[in-house]
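Q: Here's a chain of 171 amino acids. Please give me its 3D structure as tokens.
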Amino acid sequence: MLVQIVGARSILEIGTLGGYSTIWLARGMRPGGQLISLEVDPKHAEVARLNVSRGGLQDVVEVRVGNALETIPELSAERRGPFDLIFIDADKQNIPTYFEWALKLSRPGTLIIVDNVVRSGAVIEADSSDSSVRGVRRFIELLRAESGASGTVIQTVGIKGYDGFAIVLVG
């Protein structure tokens, strides 16, 4: 639905895993759209490619294998973007860096979604030693200080307990 709201034709996904979100993001794109998904694990990337193909989306989805800290700068060097929507669902300790890159690969109106930011409530623990919690907290600090974007965190509750996502609109 968020893909449709922004009328996305170009999507960047950081963290593919099995391709579940990839498929839903791609299905929401406008005709002629392109989605690039970055996955560090070759086995996960292969599973995702198979799932994307089963979904009939192989012509609109490109799964790139490699560490996103290396593949995102490559996208920038290739002059890919700006993207209409960027979905970050990868290693949480690196969310601040992914967010900084997302801003560089955005335009006014780009929607940035960051998944798993509530961390079962642990995100409020300022002295947490958990690298994922510290990464999320740093991302939220960056967002708060960012004059070119505004956002909020939305808590979710489900079978896995409670977590949530951040939704950021680039201004």
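Q: Can you summarize the key feature?
A: The helical segments are 2-6, 20-28, 42-54, 68-77, 95-104, 131-145.
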